[in-house]
Amino acid sequence: MNWDNQLKEKFDALILRIPVFHRRITEEAIIKRSEENASSRNSSQVEEVDVISAFFSDVPSPFYSMMVRLLDQSGLDYKKYGFPKTKK
Prior knowledge:
The protein is mostly helical. The protein has four helices and two strands, in the order βααβαα.
């Protein structure tokens, strides 16, 4: 599936900030979920919302604060998509 070049650069930069022992599994999981998210929108291109949704749905809660920090540092604006969602 296609990725916007600027988004892919931000994603790659974020992945490089993840501790090495979590990096590969995180990258694979988020790419897979991002592409599934894009497909569910009937899109042939992964967009920022797909990646951010993937992080918020697939990253385990013990790593939540690190994920938010890395998203901020990477310039991925999760707040404009309504994240973090409040749990009911």
